[in-house]
Amino acid sequence: MIIHVDMDAFFASVEQTFNPFLRGKPVFVSGNTARDSVIAACSYEAKKYGVKSGMSIVEGLNMCPGAIIVRGNPEKYIDTSQRIFNVLKTFTEKVELYSIDEGFLEINPENMRHENLMRLGLSIKNAINKETSLTCSIGISCNKTVAKIASDLCKPDGIMIVNESEIREFMKTLPVEKVPGIGPKMAEQLNLMGIEFCGQIEKIPLSLLKKKFGVRGEQVWYLCHGMGETKVRIQSPEPKSFGHSYTLRNDTDDINIILSVLCRLSHQVGMRMRQESYYGNVVTVAVRYSDFTACSKRKTYPFWFNDDQTIFRYASSLIFTESIMKKIRLLGVSVSGIHKRYQMNLFRDEKRERMLKAMDAINEKYGNDTVFPCMMLYEQIAYPPVTKTHAFMFSDLKKISSGQFTGAQEKQV
DNA sequence: TCTGGGGTCCTAGGACCC
DNA sequence: TCTGGGGTCCTAGGACCC
């Protein structure tokens, strides 16, 4: 059997346990970003008004005017999450860390009777509550898909068991959009075909969905029949990419600000890759314009890297291939083509490697913002406007990044 | 004062190779 | 008397998840 454990309004509940003043009140937890704009999580008192995570704060306040907005504290959530998973591991070794606030457990109960499963679910809930004072919801079934749907349906603070023999009946009246893996677009397509509830998929042959939607269609057919993975993944998979993105405080077409932000994002990506000893050979730059249109540029290189400057150089050369006609809202840098080991690079710069090592060591000891490429500062000091000296300095940095200087000139600058 | 940030997976077209 | 079929890799975009 698979048990899905899903914390209730996780970030908001953590804030409420740390701050008694917030208890019993509608709370929005915002992202820890330059623009407080979306609700990362909200308390059940706010959910009552129809507020959902992912909504803009403005929208949320319209529905629930008195809500208290709290800036998110990632460290708290990570710490609490670890304590929760430690509790889960006391029940079985087969625990999958699905996300910061969700996990799957695989169990082999000698006795699968309803009361036994219910008792097990309750003891998991109690153990988590004892450790963290938080509540969670638990779904139990024979695969991950149904277990996850069940925990969602019994929120908050519930337990739901769906035995194998009950799955067909359970899926019959379940709206397709409740199924993890079926998003808004697929749900719309299915609705157009006259399929609103999973049960209605029974009249559709697998071959038809496969023909219409390819691999996705096949998946949807199985999902709607209540089938899904039956094994938990104890090992977290190797990462495929490292990326950071940033929504600017103000939309801009100022190339200095754009480069400065790319520089910081490259630095963040590089640091994380080095921390985990990964290298990559593909750089992607993502842009979102003020009108919300988006584009991305990507390039593959024949060698592997993880240093800030290389990432930044490639990211800036990619941005220069895009003619920026509109103001930019968001920038993202990510590195993929990940390999764990270093492929010997012909152009390896050992002096630079030592410098990076020193920088990383300092940042590890004294905090992440102790040493960093100075170009990162531009975006931060751009409000209020920079001095002439700054502007001059950064115009040189811009030339470096766009490869307008020769090696000797670059060194001098 | 509309719409964050971290990811994975899939698709489709084109270049290129045998 | 026009140009098959198999494959891989690359880029750009989009759906979906938490």
CATH topology of the largest domain: Dna Ligase, domain 1
Main sheet record: 5 strands, mixed
Order of helices and strands: EHEEHHEHEEHEHEHHHEHEEHEHHHH
How many domains comprise the coordinates? 4
Helix content: 40-55%
Question: Termini, distance in Å?
Answer: 64 Å
CATH 2nd-level architecture of the largest domain: 2-Layer Sandwich
Q: Trace the largest sheet across and list its strands.
A: 5-6-1-7-8
Strand content: 15-25%
- What coarse outline follows from CA principal-axis ratios? globular
- Whole-number radius of gyration? 25 Å
Unreliably modeled segments: none
Structural class: alpha+beta
Mean pLDDT: 91
Number of extended strands? 12
Work out the helix count: 15
Q: Using the coordinates above, name the CATH class of the largest domain.
A: Alpha Beta
CATH homologous superfamily grouping of the largest domain: DNA polymerase, Y-family, little finger domain
